[in-house]
Each structure stands twice: as structure tokens, then as C-alpha cells.
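Title: [Solved] 3-hydroxyisobutyryl-CoA hydrolase 3D structure

Original question kept below for reference.
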Amino acid sequence: MTTAADEHVLLRTEGRAGYITLNRPKALNALTHDMVRALDEALALWEKDPAVETVVIAGAGDRGLCAGGDIRAIHDDARTGGTASADFWRDEYRLNALIAHYPKPYVALMDGIVMGGGVGVSAHGSVRVVTERSRVAMPETGIGFVPDVGGTYLLALAPGGLGTHLALTGAAVGAADALLCGLADHFVPSGRLPALAAELAHAPVHDVLARHVRPAPPGLLDGQRAWIDPCYAAGSVEEIVARLRARDEPAAQEAAATLLAKSPTSLKVTLTALRRARELGPLERVLEQEYRVSCAALSSPDLVEGIRAQVVDKDRDPKWSPARLADVEAEDVARFFTPVPGRELRLAGPGAPQEVPW
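Solution (posted by the thread starter after getting help):
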């Protein structure tokens, strides 16, 4: 019997490669729990298969690799106080850790839209390919959520204030800026991706890349670091906004306006999560923090309201609570990082990303 996972995650092997296609093109290949389980099972199987030397992941359709998780399902679960989202994140974050330490080349074709959970199944891979069509983002603050799937780990490692800028604004970046921020490794023109993928069935990754990698077109962020770095070095979101508004650059003014439209609680929790991620060490510790934060967000009014405004009703007019940065207290932020017995994620170290007991 064919299951939803069979339809939504297409698997095949050819020559020396195993190919994964995320196959929900009408939903921009958004991840469901069944899809996460299917990915985990395929990677575990291919890890032990000596015939599979390289894994390649791509998205069906021509719009992108993956737009993230199924946030409408998260909205419905949060409204009813369910546990489906927490269960989904538990398996998704385990998958992110597995990908990060996969012992075989894991080639992610990050063409088109790559956001949220799409970053989680690609940017932790060992070979990350972007194209001129790539739009890479962690847009969670716009729906009352916080970057997850190891996003706070990746963005905390970006140069200067770039990661903080992307995490707080949710801005999508193109190929050159994804490379600059450490979210990707190689630029390949989109028209060459079919040949690149096909050749991986017959040749080692480094040989194939050498034939297809090209210089990326110029990006934007490197030329904006004169205002990004000093503004986002501030100790609070309020001070970041004040510094941005004090700059003369139009892009800085736009960034300030963008921040003021996001969930104030999400902004403050995101900044704290990023700063803490820098001190936590390996990816596993950061994923554990993200799980705690994500589960806490389920009981925050901003998550339901943000998804309602952006995805359900699409009025693009969320009513955040609290509505102002000044009204988000320190204890409101601390709640997201407080351990909850019986609802914690613990991951083993590199090479063994399965869950371990407390």
C-alpha cells in the first residue's frame, strides 16, 4: 500500500548515489511528520549500504527545495493544546543532527525557496549548492516563532552581525549572501543542476563539482556590513532598533521598520537564543535549546496569531501580545528557556545523533 510518505518523499538509487526528492510541490515541499520519518529511515538505510556513496536531496517542481514545516498543522495543534508539533520537532531536530554528521557526502540542491525546515534538511549537509534562484531564509519571527532546525546554530556562526540581522528580520538571501553567511558552499547555475545530479551517480562529488561550480553573482550583505555589524552588536532588540533608525542608510531604516512589524516576544527570544547558541558548543546542544524554545512557543499567543495572519486568513495584520518591545519583560523571555521535566530533548554527540536519556 502506498503511504503519504511514499508519495511525498521519492527515493531511488542509481549507480553510486541515492536520490531524495521532496514531493509536495503545491505546498512548496513543506515537511510533514511522515516526510521527516521517511527521510530518517532512508538515510539510516543508505548509511549502511556500501553501494550508496553519495546522497542527493532536491525538491520537486520549479519553485524550491522546501519552504519549511507544515505551519498550518502547527497552528491547529497549538490552538487545541495538542502534542503533535512537539512530536514532530523531536524527530525533525534528530534528523537535522543526523544530516550534520552523516558519514557520506550529503549533497543539498538549494535551488529556489529554502526556508525554515528546508534549511534544516540542507544547510547542515556536507555539500550545499545554491543557484541564482536561491532564496534562503529563517523567517520565523514573522509568525510569532523563533528560528529552529539548528538555524540559531548556523546564524550564530555567521560573520559579524549578519546572522543576527537575518534571524531577527527573517530576510531571504540569494546565493552570494548564503555563501558569505556560511549557509552554503558552492554556486552552480540552475540550468546545470540536472547534469550535476546525474553525474553524481557515476563520479565522486569533488570531480562533479569541479565541472559545474561557478563564481556566484554579487550579493548585498557584504557591502552593508558597515551598518549591520555595529547595529546588531547592541545588547537588546530595543537598542538594535534605535541604532538602525539612527543610521542614514535606507536599508538600515528598512530593517528597523521590518523589526517593528515582527512579534516583539519572538524578537527578544530570538536574540537571546542566538547569544546563548554561541556559548552552547556543538549543534546538539543548540537543537536541545531550540526544542525547549519551540515547545514553549506553542503556548504563546503570538504563534497562533502569526500563522493566522500570514497563512490562514492572510490579512498580514497580526495583533501581537504584547504589542510593543518595551512591554516584553525579562521573565517573559526566560520562560522560553526554562526546562520542563518530561518535555526535554537530549541528543548524543557527533556520530550518534539518536536521543539519549537524561
